[in-house]
Design brief:
Structural class: alpha+beta
Number of strands: 4
Number of helices: 2
Radius of gyration: 11 Å
Order of helices and strands: EHEEHE
Largest sheet: 4 strands, antiparallel
Oligomer: single chain
Helix content: 25-40%
Bound molecules: copper (II) ion
Number of domains: 1
CATH architecture: 2-Layer Sandwich
């Protein structure tokens, strides 16, 4: 089953920061899609709950060099 979560992210400085986060998330197994919005300081991630968990999404954001400050379940 796929699930969507929105993560609030601090420390993004420009549009390429958002692209770094998208890339790192999309390289994570189980992530269906990632859409990071620089202006909203938010990323929206669709993922397969059976293959990946939120913890791993947070790790991916951290690997890209950013911090998740809040998490909102979408569905
Ligand atoms: Cu940047």
């Amino acid at each position: 089953m796929s699930k969507i979560v929105a993560l609030k992210i601090s420390d993004m400085h420009c549009v390429s920061c958002a692209m770094n986060i998208d890339g790192e998330l999309e390289d994570t197994e189980g992530v269906v899609s990632a859409s990071t919005n620089y202006a909203k300081a938010e990323t929206r991630v669709e993922f397969d709950e059976e293959k990946v968990n939120v913890e791993k999404l947070l790790d991916a954001v951290k690997r890209a060099g950013y911090t998740v400050i809040d998490m909102i379940d979408q569905e």
